[in-house]
Amino acid sequence: MRDPLPYVLILYYSRHGATRAMAEQLAAGVESNSGIEARLRTVPAVSPTCEAVEPEIPDEGAIYASLDDLRHCAALALGSPTRFGNMAAPLKHFIDTTSTLWLNGTLIDKPATAFTSTSSLHGGQETTLISMLLPLLHHGMVYAGLPYSETDLMDTTAGGTPYGASHVAGQRSDQPLADSERRLVRAQGKRIARLALALQSLKETA
């Protein structure tokens, strides 16, 4: 029986679908590399009503993430819309449950990256990406953004930052990914997968 392929965990929260669309494009970038696959996972919304619970399986899209998804991943891509220049509460809530992984050093030396979407061009994309970077560094992960060898970073009038891919979704959150945004998020997926394979081989020979 063949060993399962290593995977990049693409863990995201998406309320209106923009971040989900980015996650799917990033997955395509991951799987443009041979020998690795993408695993899409989401998180449930956070309700202010304590008695309210989400169904165990979402009505559509990716299934909810578990700590085992994170524990066994070769790399992590974290995606969130911006909320006042920060990641959305549902994603932060999930990250706050990962203390056991931190205590055991489970994620140390695994590559990680982040992506985001906003309604407006200057809606806090860069600060949101940095807010997602902080817990990844606490976990000892190796952060990988987007290098300027991706020439769309120089020319974009939509999303795109060196901290990670981004998307301007518009006031109604219904603006599709621009061509440059799609190329950048795919490039980010391709890069994080390549790094995952390289770092995994280093671990195996250490």
If you had to describe this structure to a student in words, what would you say it looks like?
With 206 residues, this protein is an alpha/beta fold. Helix content is 37%, strand content 17%. It is built from seven helices and seven strands, in the order E-H-E-H-E-E-H-H-E-H-E-H-E-H. The chain has helices spanning 18-30, 67-71, 89-95, 99-104, 125-138, 152-155, 179-205, and strands spanning 7-12, 37-42, 75-83, 86-87, 111-118, 142-143, 166-168. Strands 1, 2, 3, 4, 5, 6 and 7 form a seven-stranded mixed β-sheet that branches. Helix 5 links the parallel strand 5 (111-118) and strand 6. Helix 1 crosses helix 7 (179-205). It is globular and about 45 Å long.
Helix-strand layout with pairing:
Elements: E1 7-12, H1 18-30, E2 37-42, H2 67-71, E3 75-83, E4 86-87, H3 89-95, H4 99-104, E5 111-118, H5 125-138, E6 142-143, H6 152-155, E7 166-168, H7 179-205
Parallel strand pairs: 1-2, 1-3, 3-5, 5-6, 5-7
Antiparallel strand pairs: 3-4
Helix pairs in contact: 1-7
Structure in a nutshell:
The chain is an alpha/beta fold and 206 residues long. The chain is built from seven helices and seven strands.
Question: How many strands appear in the DSSP assignment?
Answer: 7
Order of helices and strands: EHEHEEHHEHEHEH
Alpha carbon gyration radius: 16 Å
Largest sheet: 7 strands, mixed
Fraction of residues in β-strands: 15-25%
Report the principal-axis shape: globular
Distance between the termini: 26 Å
Structural class by helix and strand composition: alpha/beta
Q: Averaging pLDDT over every residue, what do you get?
A: 91
Please give the share of residues in helix: 25-40%
Query: Could you name the ranges where pLDDT drops below 50 across 5 or more consecutive residues?
Result: none
- Helix count equals 7
